[in-house]
Amino acid sequence: MNALALIAEDDAEVAGILEAYLIREGLRTVRATDGLTAIEHHDRLKPDIVLLDVKMPRADGYQVLATIRQRGETPVIMVTALDEDLDKLQALRIGADDYVVKPFNPLEVVARVKAVLRRAHGQKLPTTIRVGQLEVDEISHVAFVNVAERGRVRLDLTLTEFRILSHMARAPSRVFSRAELIDACFPESDALERTVDSHASNLRRKFDAAGATGFFAGVRGVGYRLTELP
Questions:
Q1: What is the pTM of this model?
Q2: Higher model confidence: residue 187 or residue 222?
Q3: In which domain, by residue range, is 68 found?
Q4: Quick check: 147 pLDDT over 80?
């Protein structure tokens, strides 16, 4: 099972950016918009790592961190606009594993998440994602479908098609908007939403040609879903 990251952040835009980049790197995510909900999620879901804002309603990040530390050693990275040395020292004194100041580079946050997970648990982030007939190897950048009549068939994908497939495979039954796919898979591009439609059409055609139907269903007015899981 992929590592689960709890994002405790009351700013929806910041939380969305963190979630998109963590999912892109193979983690599962859950959000909390206030401190008490973060504590409840930590108790119930047992996340592998927590990304924790300081200024939150109902209970601030320091209170959440103290509660988490009373319960155990779940890794915690503070993600906050407070950049004074005293704020950092307080977080580290209570037991934070790392401290990131806003505005941040999402790629740096992901790198720190991976480093903290490795240090804490020897956590190996997944390299192969399996969804029904589909296998996506993120190290080799190849994807296969297992078809009864033909066996294991490799999909001939462009780099962009692979990025889209890999991103969606982490949450295969979720509906992704075109804008989400652009942000996650074309982060430095000026791609238009109709570009996503073109790539989705090509991917669907390649799955069909391999004998694996039912992938890349369009959801009218929203975007695309990789597959309906049973």
A1: 0.56
A2: 222
A3: 4-121
A4: yes
Contact yes or no for 148/212 (Cβ under 8 A):
no
Residue 150 burial class via C-beta count within 10 angstroms: exposed 0-12, middle 13-18, buried 19 and up = exposed
**Strands, sheet with 151-154, edge to edge from the N-terminal-most edge strand:** 128-131, 134-137, 142-147, 151-154
* 201: pLDDT strictly greater than 60: yes
CA–CA distance, 108 with 98 (Å, rounded to integer): 12
The C-alpha atoms of residue 69 and residue 171 are separated, in whole angstroms, by: 30
For residues 198 and 149, state if they share a domain.
yes
Token pair recorded at residue 92: 């580290």
CB 221 within 8 A of CB 183: no
What is the total count of domains within the chain?
Answer: 2
φ, ψ for residue 82, nearest 5 deg: -75, 115
What CATH number does the domain containing 148 carry?
A: 1.10.10.10
Residue 84: the pLDDT is: 67
Which range of 120-129, 135-144, 146-155, 203-212 scores highest in mean pLDDT? It is: 203-212
Same domain, 46 and 136: no
Task: Identify whether the C-beta of residue 136 lies closer than 8 Å to the C-beta of residue 157.
Answer: no
What tokens does 89 get? 């020292």
Do 141 and 86 belong together in one domain?
A: no
Confidence of residue 8 (pLDDT cuts 50, 70, 90): very high
Q: Is 141 left (phi over 0), alpha (psi -120 to 50) or beta?
A: left
Beta pairing, strands 98-101 & 76-80: parallel
